[in-house]
Specification:
Arc Repressor Mutant, subunit A; 3 strands; globular; mainly alpha
Length: 123
Amino acid sequence: MSADTRRSATAQAEAFLPLKPVWFHILITLAEQPAHGYAIRQAVEARTDGQIRLWPTTLYGTLGQLEAAGLIDEIAGDGSDEAVPRRTYRLSTLGKHVLSAETDRLKQLLDLARAAMGRRRLT
């Protein structure tokens, strides 16, 4: 990737920041592996100890927004024999850049907070 392409990808990714917490958690889930909506819901709830609950309206509305923004892609289903195949999603290239940029942004904030408090770990 050329320096100009990297700068363009970074600028494009930073336009999404700061991410909504629900977007961030969905992107984290899809960074681990492609998943269908219900699996995403379960992963987010497990990762946040139930602090973030994705009800169907919120979940599928958010997946639609992420797909429209180009941060995730729908891929072929899981091959199950279900009457209604599940829609499976994966992180897009832009989504990877956005997740990385948001992670860097949050790390910088944490570093600033730690420095201001004069200790290595916030408790």
